[in-house]
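REQUEST ID: PR-0412
SUBMITTED BY: lab tech R.K.
PRIORITY: routine
TASK: structure prediction, single protein chain
INPUT:
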Amino acid sequence: MQADVLSRIREGKLWDFPGGIHPPEMKKQSNQKPIRSLHLPKFFYVPVLQHSGTAGEVIVQQGDLVLKGQALTKGGNYRQLPVHSPTSGKVVAIQPHVSSHPSGLPELTIVIETDGEDKWIERQPIDDFLSLTSGQIIQKVYQAGIAGLGGAVFPTSHKLHVADKRCKLLIINGAECEPYITCDDRLMQDYADEMIEGVRILRYVLRPEEVVIAIEDNKPKAIQAVEKALKGANDISVRVIPTKYPSGASDQLVQVLTGLEIPQGKRTIEMGIMMHNVGTAFAVKRAVMDDEPLIERVVTLTGDKIRNKGNVWARLGTPILHLLEQVDYQADERFPVFLGGPMMGFILPSLQSPITKTANCIIAPDHFEYAPPEPERNCIRCSSCSDACPVGLLPQQLYWFARAEDHDKSKEYHLDACIECGVCAYVCPSYIPLIQYFRQEKAKIQEVDQKAKQAEEAKIRFEAREARLNKEKEARTARIQQAAEKRREEVANSQGEDPVKAALERLKAKKAETATPVQTKANGEPDNSELMAQRKARRLAKQVEVSPLPDSRDITSLESVPLPQAGEGNDPRKAAVAAALARAKAKKEAQQAAVSDENVAKAEVAEDPRKAAVAAAIARAKAKKEVQQVAVSDENVVKTEVAEDPRKAAVAAAIARAKAKKEAQK
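STATUS: complete
OUTPUT:
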């Protein structure tokens, strides 16, 4: 395939790609004047992410003083490009700021207040890039933060790194097919020598066999300037291609120069082809030879609402409104301002958004150039979009799939191959904004794929965890089995019995010895009379403890019941009744004594109050002593009975617990 590419490019023949359009050209509005510089703004707003990749780590803080060209972020690989300070000044904030994106969503931005000195960091320019190795040049390109300035903003250092001697054909893209944009045109006219030097640096790193600069035939002055800068050199050739939109797209330009179509899902480097924009080549020269990072780029300012049209050097981070104010922009709320060309650009959500590495053109149209979008109508299946599609897709089918959110069908019909050139929407007679539908569908598919990827990763983690747990379980089981085998071997070797089994047998025998034999009646049924008597005694004792004190009649009747003596009988119920009678009798006597003492005290109180207090104290002491004597008597009786019968021990313990609980409640 690579040999075929070289043979075709050496033929000098040009091919064509299917579809495409020829929109009205408006380049003469802005390509008649050289590139100029404008005054710097008071504040710069530098987004930390300005390329296709991931943002680097911010290495400055609020309040830091920075110099022009100083790195503000750093990355860990070629996909994390650093950004640099566009001037000298002070970092006043690191915060979200409106982005130069159709959504206008805020992005992390470093705000720098200029000091007016515009002082550079220390630089080390060189005279000859041949004194550097390819690796050193790639590192310089990376440290300069250079990304593709043709629109894709893919990290240039990464492209150079992955090429790895596979590049056979190097194409420098100067087609610039958008009808309003002229930044590459003016760059080739005004800085052809530096651009050619950048091409030679790329050639030195990639070592291709052929180098071609492709320029559309509507840029005669640029073609003349580049050929003059080459000075008859045969290491780089210029190919003038027909003007046709979108001939500046990567795959379409390859097809024009070689007649080969890039297969679906493949990159040009897989066919031995590497492509860079003319602006990228110029930035490479500045980075390698002059030791200048990418802090500015050429931006086209055009449209009938701008009086002083042309191309300017715009520092990255400059508010777009600041640029427009310096070129006599006539603000009109009826007409939007576009970032990019009319085919692939978008309406700016805010003029406070900054210039970034992706910004190549700002269009401020009037009513002759811009009309409000027509109402969307139904698709009439005219196939105009399919005929004009330069990729050979079926936009009308993709439109239906996008509306139905049929992601599988969208993938089947290769929605991912759409380059979003806008040709289909341009030719649609029903004014259907096809590109908007396609972009939304791509975003939804990306979201679904991301969730599916996360689910698959979670599944892999779960399966790995299960495998690990099963492995650990098997290892534990194996260890247990090995220990059991080892024990059995030890038993077998010692000619003895199993120690575990012997211990179990001893435990079983001990339980059999200590177990109480079950008594049976004459008919063979279990005799539980003794156990029932114990339970009844405990219940009766508890009832006596919690029952209210009997009145005088009950106590008098109970006094006639003889109290059992110690060692007399073995009935625990009698012991409980005797104890209850003794307590009741003692309490009654205490109450009577208290009443008598109270009467005496009342009689004496009239004579002497001190005698009343003494009498009351004596009465309380006497009552307390009698209660203690009764309790001691009951305790002796119970202890005597317990010594004779173990069953009474249980009754006594129950009575003691009930008594202790009652006293605790008091």
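NOTES: DSSP finds 20 helices and 16 strands in the chain.
REVIEWED BY: pending
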